[in-house]
Specification:
ketol-acid reductoisomerase activity; 6-PGluconate_DH-like_C_sf; single chain; two-stranded antiparallel sheet; alpha/beta; ten-stranded mixed β-sheet; Rossmann fold; protein homodimerization activity; N-(1-d-carboxylethyl)-l-norvaline Dehydrogenase, domain 2; globular; NADP
């Protein structure tokens, strides 16, 4: 690729999305500004500017070109509610403990729910389901299925699941004896064991997933699920410890928890929708929205590599290095990066939205925010767009499967499990900062950091919007899951701790993509700021008037009634990692 093309890569998202042919670019509902370094070429919807720098691009993103599909559904048990998000009608089911009495009816025909795995989601979902069904006075058994010899047996017993009570046993016996099999083992383990799992399932039983990864894997090798089972998904928009912690916090009120999406991929007997909704309600989801299994895995795997983990990791690495190189004290630099994002910025977005972050700044601080936002938006979009395409094409899924197989010795080659990433200077500074942090301190609202982070969030929203995802999915994957689930845990223990203790797929993605965000921000966005590149006023205006802000306001009214509480000593290390460290 020519050098000029490479330097403009961060500005070409909309062009490649709507190209009619190489020599003729037409853009629907999107206005781009590009200007050649040798001449000015004015076109109604396209101007090309200064490709010697990626920030020479003056591309302005408008609202979605591709309207999301209306994901309607019917339930004979739960009340469906229509909401309007940025002009699009969507359907949800509100949760709450006052709905637990409906669970036996919705789970009709199910005598045993098998929860397979004890990783990030398994412990939380199994305990929430068990407690909710007990409150509903249901006789449905929630049974944990684990590999023989697994060290997770001890942890499951400690949580109240035992062989004697019939609530803990071998994985294959549990699969064979369950009417609803909730497959919560790692994505790579699903890819390696799906044939055996399918062969052990009863005809007309229900396979439950909390991630669409397995569908993506099957599609990549030209396969699908067996036709004699139903396939559903309930996907909490947060990691397992958040799902459990908010559920427990909400016991004294009418519920608090993590929002979830649900999907019905196959329904062999008409029960699938009610079972999926019951599962979500039993987990404590404040509201449940519809998606498809394909849309879920694309948005989820993409989101983990974006603002939920990988991108935020890359952002703070880049900014901490910049601030210290400019002479800022290390502790202050950490506070102005990690503490700012995981604390006050996230808390403000959670309760008031992104515009509230901008509006909380002084006039001088707003100008700093604007420079950072304008310089960072398209570099972030560049990497996000590539990442989404890698997920949608199956490339990222294959990468996860292959990486999982490299964790063990194979073909005479050494094992390469993931190592920790918490030993560099920045993370040691973070340990010191947190050790002296006053209780409840949310960190400073640092305008440059805020501008970069909000630009990243808006770029991710735009990618998902252009790809036709619903606003419920966009907001939950790009906003709510970040500020209400992951970032509070990062604030308690640090971004690096989160990167080392989330799901295997997310950990792999963060390690792969965080350096890309770090590099492009350092090489393009920060250089543009230092070179005095003017603020793109059209881009800023679009941010201030974007319809997503109204949609976030609607979703904010449906948020949990309590904020997640994460003490500094919270033990949310994934069981298998705790064993490895011992």
């Amino acid at each position: 690729m020519a050098a000029a093309t490479t330097s403009c890569s961060s500005a070409i998202y909309a062009a490649s999305e709507t190209l009619a042919k190489p020599s003729s670019r037409s853009f629907s509902a999107t206005s781009l500004a590009l200007q050649s370094s040798s001449s000015k070429l004015a076109i109604k919807s396209l101007r090309l500017s200064g490709c010697g720098s990626a920030l020479g691009a003056r591309m302005v993103a408008a609202p979605a070109v591709k309207a999301p599909a209306l994901l309607d559904f019917d339930s004979t048990v739960f009340k469906k509610e229509k909401i309007n998000l940025a002009g699009h009608d969507e359907y949800i089911v509100r949760g709450g403990r006052d709905l637990f009495h409906l669970l036996p009816d919705a789970f009709k025909g199910i005598k045993q729910i098998g929860v397979i795995g004890w990783g990030s989601q398994g412990p939380a979902q199994a305990q929430n389901l068990r407690d909710s069904l007990a409150e509903a006075k249901s006789n449905i058994v929630v049974k944990i299925g684990l590999r023989k010899g697994s060290r997770s047996f001890a942890e499951a017993r400690a949580a109240g699941f035992t062989e004697e009570s019939g609530t803990l046993g071998d994985i294959w016996e549990t699969v064979s004896g369950s009417d609803l099999v909730m497959l919560l083992i790692s994505d790579s383990a699903q890819a390696d064991n799906y044939e055996k799992i399918f062969s052990h399932m009863k005809p007309n039983s229900i396979l439950g997933l909390s991630h669409g990864f397995l569908l993506g894997h099957l599609q990549s090798i030209g396969l699908d699920f067996p036709k004699n089972i139903s396939v559903i998904a309930v996907c909490p928009k947060g990691m397992g410890p958040s799902v459990r912690r908010l559920y427990v916090q909400g016991k004294e009120i009418n519920g608090a928890g993590i929002n979830a999406s649900f999907a019905v991929h196959q329904d062999v007997d008409g029960r699938a929708t009610d079972v999926a909704l019951a599962w979500s309600v039993a987990l404590g989801s404040p509201f449940t929205f519809a998606t498809t299994l394909e849309q879920e895995y694309k948005s989820d795997i993409f989101g983990e590599r974006g603002i939920l983990l990988g991108a935020v990791h890359g952002v703070v690495e880049s900014l901490f290095r910049r601030y210290t190189e400019m002479g800022m004290d290390e502790d202050l630099a950490y506070k102005n990066t990690v503490e700012s994002i995981t604390g006050i910025i996230s808390r403000t977005i959670s309760t008031k939205g992104m515009l509230a972050v901008y509006n909380a700044l002084s006039e001088d601080e707003k100008r700093i925010f604007e420079k950072a936002y304008s310089a960072s938006y398209y570099p972030c979009m560049d990497i996000l767009y590539e990442c989404y395409e890698d997920v949608a094409s199956g490339s990222e899924i294959r990468s996860v499967v292959l990486a999982g197989r490299r964790f063990y010795e194979k073909e005479g080659l050494a094992a390469f499990p993931m190592g920790n990433i918490d030993q560099t200077r920045m993370w040691k500074v973070g340990e010191r900062v947190r050790s002296t942090r006053p209780a409840g301190d949310q960190g400073p609202l640092y305008p440059f950091t805020a501008g970069v982070f909000v630009a990243l969030m808006m770029a991710q929203i735009e990618i998902l919007r252009k790809k036709g995802h619903s606003y419920s999915e966009i907001i939950n994957e790009s906003v709510i899951e970040a500020v209400d689930s992951l970032n509070p845990f990062m604030h308690a223990r640090g971004v690096s701790f989160m990167v080392d203790n989330c799901s295997t797929t997310a950990r792999l993605g963060s390690r792969k993509w965080a350096p890309r965000f770090d590099y492009i921000l350092t090489q393009q966005a920060l250089v543009a700021v230092d070179n005095g590149t003017p603020v793109n006023q059209d881009l800023l205006g679009n941010f201030l008037s974007d319809p997503v802000h109204r949609a976030i306001e609607v979703c904010a009214k449906l948020r949990p009634t309590v904020d997640i509480s994460v003490p500094a000593d919270a033990d949310f290390v994934r069981p298998e990692l705790r064993h490895a460290s011992n």
